[in-house]
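Give me structure tokens for this 182-residue protein.
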Amino acid sequence: MKIYNSIILMFISFLVYSQSIDLINPKEEIGIDNWNIVNDNVMGGISNSDLYITKESNLMFYGNVSLKNNGGFASSRLRFNSGKLKDIKAFQLRVKGDGKKYKFRLRENYRSSNYSTDFKTEFGVWMNIEILVSDLNPMFMGYYSRNAKKLEIDKITSLGFQISDKQQGEFKLEIMHVKALY
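Here you go.
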């Protein structure tokens, strides 16, 4: 009975999310341009990070988080035109991490708040992570924001990854793809 229920659940998930668009897919040269790095040095910290394409054609977000000078975060942001995510219900990430926790973040152009959720990686293990739009929380300067306006997915102009939460030291997050699911 368990196998039967699992098969039905997988089939329903496939039907619900059968349409998707690639937001990041380096093998197809999608989502490899228009990246910005934003680290804690904007506030006096000394963390650093960067991106590169691996020999396996995956996107690597890597660097070092330092807590010195009240620092403690490193982030990357992919910019795109608003409207790209119209009617999106979820995101599917295929990532390989280092056992640390990361944030998947969305933001509108010129807004100080963002919408994010955490995901945990396992060291050296490829993982499929599904993030529902409804699971994204409004954040401001790393804290939950009660005053942020409701997420309007069609107005989002960037997505990104961040490491923070006092996780100092080297980090590495390999990204095979990010898909937006209808």
